[in-house]
Amino acid sequence: MSVNTVAPTTQKDISTDASPGHHLSALPEALSARMRLPLKISNLTLNSRVLQSPLSGVTDKVFRRLVRRYAPQSMLYTEMVSAAELHHLKKLPEVMDIDPDEQPISIQLFDCRPAFLAEAARKAVDQGADTIDINMGCPVNKITKNGGGSSLLRDPETAIAIVKAVCQAVSVPVTVKTRIGWSDDAINAVEFAQQMEAAGAKMLTLHGRTRAQGYNGIARWDQIAKVKAALTIPVIANGDIFSVDSAVQCLLETQADGVMCSRGTLGYPFLVGEIDYFLKTGDRKLTPTAIQRLQCAKEHLIMLWDYKGLRGIRQARKHMSWYAKDFENAADLRDRLCQIETVEQGCELIDSAISRLKTA
Ligand SMILES: Cc1cc2nc3c(=O)[nH]c(=O)nc-3n(C[C@H](O)[C@H](O)[C@H](O)COP(=O)(O)O)c2cc1C
User: Fold this and answer.
1) Which of 67, 77, 88, 126 has its CA 20 to 30 A from that of 288?
2) Where does the record place the region Disordered (predicted)?
3) Helix, strand, coil percentages in the chain from 3-state DSSP, rounded to 5
4) CA 323 to CA 316: how far, in whole Å?
C-alpha cells in the first residue's frame, strides 16, 4: 500500500481561515509584534518562533513530514543521536535520515565526550543539519549514568568543553537543550545557561523541569523567565505547551524568544502550525475534527509502513493510540489499534471508525 492511496489532510483542509467563534483570547499587540520578527540564531534566520522538539521514538522523518505540512517555517528536530554509536557505526543511523527539503532542521546529539560530539556534529552537518543541538536534559538512567543528557547539569566543565569543541568543529550554530537543574535543591539554570552562552552556544532551549521531576509536575516557567533575562542569545521555552493558549501564556510569563512543543504533538502534528499561525496572525485555525485526526492517523500509519515495514507497524501502535481520543468509542479503537499486526488491519479499523463518526 502506498501513501498516495490516502487523501492527505492538507493545511487547506484544516482551514487557515479563522471563523467567527474561533477567536478566543486576543493576542497582545506587544507579543504579536515580537513574534512576527524572524528568530535569529547567529547567522541562521528562522521565520517561525515555534519549534517542534526532539522526541526519541517519535520525531522520525515520517512524523516530521506531517508536522512540516502544517508548520512550513518551523525548526524541526531529529530524535537524539548517540555520538558514540555514530563513531563506531560504518553507516549513518536511521535517526539521521532527513529529507533533502526538510530545512530548517536540527540534528540533536548526545554523549559526554567532546571529541565524539565534534566528530558527530561534522557528520550531522554533512547530512544537512542547519544547527547542531546538544542534549543536556535527557533524564533517562541509561544516558545519565554515562555522563550524558541531564547529568551534564552537574558537570558544567564537561558541558563547556563539549560546546567549545562542537563550535570549533562546525560552522552552523550550536545550541543546547537542557533542564532547570538536577533536582529541587540543585536548580542552577541561570548559571549553567550563562556558562553555555559563554562557551559559544547560539541558542538555549530550557525545559522548565528538573531531572528529578522527569515529566511530572508543572513546568517552572518562572525559571525560564530568569534564564531569559540573564542571556543575550535566544531562549526557547519548553514544558507544558499543549495549546495555543498555553503557548501565549508561557511567552507572556517568560518573555522567551519562542516556544518548543513536545508531548502536545503526540497524535497531534497540527499543534506547532496552530501556534505559529496564531502568533503570526492573531487568528485561530479551526481545530481538526475527529475525522480529520483519524485521516491523519491513517496516513501516518501508511507512511510508517512504507518507510520501515513491519517495524513501522509496531512503532505505529503507540502513535495510533495517541490519535484515537476525544470521540465516542475512542477507548475501544485505541485498544484495537495497539494490537495491529498489519497496515491493512490498522486502515480497516480507522476506516470503520471514520464511517461510524460520519453517520453519528
Ligand atoms: C517520548 C519522549 C521522547 C523524548 N525525547 C527527547 C529527545 O530525544 N531529546 C530531547 O532533548 N528531549 C526529549 N524529550 C523531552 C521533550 O523534548 C521535552 O523537553 C519534554 O517533553 C517537556 O515538554 P512537554 O512538557 O511539553 O512535553 C522527550 C520526551 C518524550 C515524552
Assistant:
1) 77
2) 1-21
3) 50, 15, 40
4) 11
Strands 203-210 and 81-82, by their bridges, are unpaired
Strands 44-46 and 39-41: antiparallel
Q: Contact, 117 vs 130, CB < 8 A? A: no
Length, in residues, of the chain: 360
CB-CB contact of 127 with 101 (8 Å): no
pTM over 0.85: yes
In this predicted model, what pLDDT tens digit does every residue of 234-286 receive, in sequence order?
999 999 999 999 999 999 999 999 999 999 999 999 999 999 999 999 999 99
What domains are defined for the chain?
A: 29-281 (3.20.20.70), 288-359 (no CATH)
The answer to whether the CB of 87 falls within 8 A of the CB of 63 is no
CA of 334 to the centre of ligand 1 (A): 23
C-alpha dihedral (280, 282, 286, 287), degrees to nearest 10: 80
**Beta-strand (E) ranges in the chain?**
39-41, 44-46, 50-52, 76-77, 81-82, 105-110, 131-136, 174-181, 203-210, 235-238, 258-261
Please, are residues 105 and 128 in contact by the beta-carbon 8 Å criterion?
A: yes
Least-confidence region, from 11-25, 104-118, 135-149, 313-327: 11-25
Cβ 56 under 6 angstroms from ligand 1: yes
Residue 230 phi/psi, 5° resolution? -95, -10
Distance 207 CA to ligand 1 centre (A): 9
Q: Tell whether ligand 1 has an atom less than 6 A from the beta carbon of residue 262.
A: yes
End-to-end CA distance of the chain: 29
Give me Rg for the CA atoms of the chain: 20
Q: Are 257 and 72 in contact (CB under 8 A)?
A: no
240 lines ligand 1 (CB under 6 A): yes
Q: Give residue-wise pLDDT tens across range 281-315.
A: 999 999 999 999 999 999 999 999 999 999 999 99
Catalytic residue positions? 138
Strand partners, 41: 44
